[in-house]
Fold:
Amino acid sequence: MRQILPPILAALALTGMLAGPVAAQLQVPGLPVPGVGSALDDLTDRVGDTVETADRTAAREARRLLRLRERTLDRLIQRNPAVIERDTQGDLARRGELLAIASSAGDLLALEQAGFGILAREEIEGLAVAVHRLAVPSGMPLAEAERLASGIAPDLELSADHLHFEAGGESSRTSATLTPPGLAAVSGATIDLPVGIIDGASSKAVPVAAQKGFARGAPLASDHGTSVASLLHFTGARRLLVADVYGSDPAGGNALAIARALGWLAASGSKVVSISLVGPRNALVERAVKSAQQRGVVIVAAVGNDGPAAPPAFPASYSDVLAITGVDRKGRALIEAGRALHLDYAAPGADVRALDARGRSMVLRGTSYAAPLAAARVAAAIGGGTNWRPRLDAEARDLGAKGHDTTYGRGLLCSGCGKRK
Structure:
């Protein structure tokens, strides 16, 4: 447990003046300290100014990250107007398509009469979730079509085919030797439990048990997917199943691809699934997540790197998904970390070493890389035949306020994992 200074001592330490004569006199908490009243008043003012400056800096950074997020989304639409557009909430989705879950024949008939086309019906493998892909009426914007369909069939569970994006951040190449530091240093064991990954594909630089594509051109090795897989491998996971939801598709990472990927992983025996992607709330993905959880799958997801002012990250925010944030090597929360509707744990998210698609060592930053480290600890606990939650809680190092908090969740997992040596 990190020791918490009394407020006035913390303030003095923050200003760098808890030293010399003043420090010598502050030995008995609660008693007057002769001769330092004016000094303390001055310090209080300076501490207030420091905290206010820090708050302004954090708020400015949050706004910058939010603007960067919006510019990134705008550029993606501008580059791919034929396949991507915004829905009623302004979120990015596959152009011209809606997803209807568990539709009734009456609802589908009413939508067809209004000009919607039924492109396909399928049941998601391994999850018993039925979905219809609907084509919107010709020439109608997605947002308008979504409102029209909701008016025609108000009880229908309907959503756009939302896009999800990698939760990776900054990276740099390094010539340092990549020595697996992970699980061996933590528990001295490897993980034989099948662990799933929903991301881009991994290259041959990381051995995986199976890999399957759920997007055009998939599986296609990516730096992000390879990095996530390498972190799980280095932390002891030896039976990796990788679902590539991106491939070469500009509208990759969509909700239907993620639901299909989750179904395949559940049917293939994955008991833990690591997801370092973020997107908006989506009815199909939420239904797929719940179905997988009912089949005993624990889903671990990153909160993203769009900052605290961004919308809540999904799938991290779905019920019972383990939401993971990142910390730097000093145990401080990443300033760019996004938020979820709940937070479970933190894991290393800065100065993390992993591999790129060419097998080169990279130094990485972002909550993308915290999620697989946390997932490895979940898998180790499940593979050990114990109740995984109490084991993780016992292992987690408490940071910040005592107990569960909104900055670090229930504490830091895998603190020795992913570090440079």
About this structure: The chain has a mean pLDDT of 84. The chain is about 35% helix and 20% strand. Residues 165-395 form a domain with the Rossmann fold fold (CATH 3.40.50.200). The radius of gyration is 24 Å.
